[in-house]
Design a protein that fits this description.
- The protein has 376 residues and is α+β, with helices and mostly antiparallel strands.
- The strands form three sheets. Strands 6, 7, 8, 9, 10, 11, 12, 13, 14, 15, 16 and 17 form a twelve-stranded mixed beta sheet that branches. A three-stranded antiparallel beta sheet has the order 4-1-5. It has a two-stranded antiparallel ribbon with strand order 2-3.
- It starts with 11 loop residues before the first strand and ends with a strand.
Length: 376
């Protein structure tokens, strides 16, 4: 007897239209019998006449491997119907099914933040200063029997991205690619969550609005304390002085696109360790309030003025507690530059390249107005 391949939702199946397909019912059982060519399966290949994905099987608990196994009735009906249709009709019906979807978001840097809690997670977030840069976080998602997240090819635990998948009630494999590391203040968690949200929407043809997708990613980040406003920053793009927390973003956009900044990477700083400390947040909020009021009073602030205000915020809030960070910032300032610390990471952000800091990795960024992009 012919053997059937395991029906895996991440695999595309060829179903030749000249097959004769018959369904036999035995009480509650639905069984499939084939004559002629067998099924053929590929991993993401495209030399097929008719092809489609079985999303329904992701909820099935059975192992479907042999001809006489009991198949889900939904799959049986779909197979039988598709086998009797012409190529064009079938292809039109299957356009909504995709093998994978991609999305990319810019990385972002926060310079000043004021935490703004609220009972409504969509209104929770931060006000402050942040901007997007030309380095991107790319996400590729495909259906899977269980949720998996890979970061630069290595499987990791990524609670914020898992939370996005749970909110969609979908299972998928998420492949994240980034030239920038996690946990150093580059907004990688927020960008990954937002890109995953848009890619899942594309993959499963859910037709949610950009605001809904941004809200899902924002709430996932808030709940997991991996950020307060980076999702909003990357969703909007540009150099933002945010005047209200949450989603949608309310901000003043400053004309700094095209300007270069440099990030000298020193040490990781877990965001959750800061956001969970209420006493520390109270001090941070007071310092942020003072500096944001100063920026508000400047009609046309320069990038250098913003960086200086950000450094004052970092000092007054006590967030600059790493001696290497302080020494490097002071050295840059003595050499005529302007520098501060990324929020949150032991990373020095400056408007001039510190060539003397040869022992550290230095990233060159261009401030951009770019935001989320999706592709099939």
């Amino acid at each position: 007897s012919s053997k059937m391949p395991v029906i895996n939702p991440a695999v595309i199946y060829k179903f030749p239209p000249n097959n004769n397909c018959a369904i036999t019912s035995r009480q509650k059982e639905k069984r499939l019998k084939l004559s002629g060519d067998r099924f053929f399966c590929w991993e993401r290949k495209s030399s097929v006449s008719l092809h489609f994905l079985f999303y329904s099987t992701m909820k099935e608990k059975r192992s479907l491997s042999r001809l006489n196994n009991v198949y889900p009735s939904y799959c049986i009906r779909q197979l039988a119907d598709q086998s009797r249709r012409v190529y064009t009709d079938c292809n039109l019906k299957c356009k909504k099914y995709m093998r994978e979807a991609k999305a990319s978001c810019p990385a972002s840097i926060s310079l000043i933040f004021k935490a703004c809690p609220d009972k409504n997670p969509y209104k929770t977030g931060s006000t402050g200063v942040g901007f997007t840069v030309d380095k991107k976080v790319s996400v590729r998602v495909k259906p899977s029997v269980k949720n998996r997240v890979l970061f630069n090819g290595k499987e990791i635990s990524f609670p914020t991205v898992f939370a996005v998948l749970e909110k969609f009630k979908k299972t998928a494999e998420v492949n994240i690619t980034s030239s920038l590391p996690l946990g150093f203040g580059f907004g990688i968690s927020g960008a990954s969550a937002l890109a995953t949200s848009f890619a899942i929407n594309k993959l499963f043809a859910l037709n949610k609005s950009p605001l809904e997708l941004t809200g899902i990613a924002h709430v996932a980040e808030i709940e997991n304390k991996t950020g307060l406003g980076s999702v909003g920053t990357v969703a909007s793009g540009g150099f933002l002085v945010k005047t209200a927390p949450g989603i949608p973003v309310v901000a003043r956009k400053l004309p700094f696109a095209g300007k270069k900044v440099y990030a000298t990477i020193i040490k990781r700083l877990p965001t959750k360790s800061v956001l969970k400390n209420k006493k520390r947040l109270a001090i941070i909020n007071q310092s942020a309030r003072v500096q944001l009021e100063k920026i508000k009073k400047i009609a046309s602030p320069s990038l250098e003025e913003i960086i200086d205000n950000a450094y004052n915020f970092a000092l007054e809030s006590g967030l600059v507690d790493n001696r290497e960070v302080v020494n490097l910032i002071e050295s840059i300032r003595k050499n005529g530059g302007h520098a501060t610390m990324a929020m949150l990471g032991h990373v020095v952000i400056s408007d001039t390249k510190p060539d003397f800091a040869k022992n550290y990795r230095i990233e060159e960024f261009v401030i951009t107005n770019s935001h989320i992009e999706t592709t099939a």
